[in-house]
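Render this sequence as a predicted structure.
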Amino acid sequence: PPPTSTPPPPTPLFDFVSGFQRCDLPIFVVLAIWILCEGFHGGRFNNRLPAPACREQRMAKPNPFQFLQQVRDEVSKVSWPTRNETAITTAMVFVMAVIAAIFFLLADQLMGWGIGLILGVGR
């Protein structure tokens, strides 16, 4: 029998991710360093505020009773919609959902017809 060739073993570096290439590793390293240094919210090593100033800006934690009282005060400030506004808004959501469904149905039918015409499928 002819000798069978075995495929080379997979490389262990990030083979579990489909399409991940070895050349992408530096991009992820740079991204991780950027998130640590600058980050989305100023980062860990940001020099905008010194560490003591950051600690001073923390608010004191209220006890549970004070917290619930503050929540109640904030909820009372909310401008809640009336029953009529809620009904109108709900109806508009349903109307827009139906319009979107009809639009995408027609777009799908038109694209299917056009692709069938181009490829000659179903003749």
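Summary. DSSP finds four helices and no strands in the chain. The chain has a mean pLDDT of 77.
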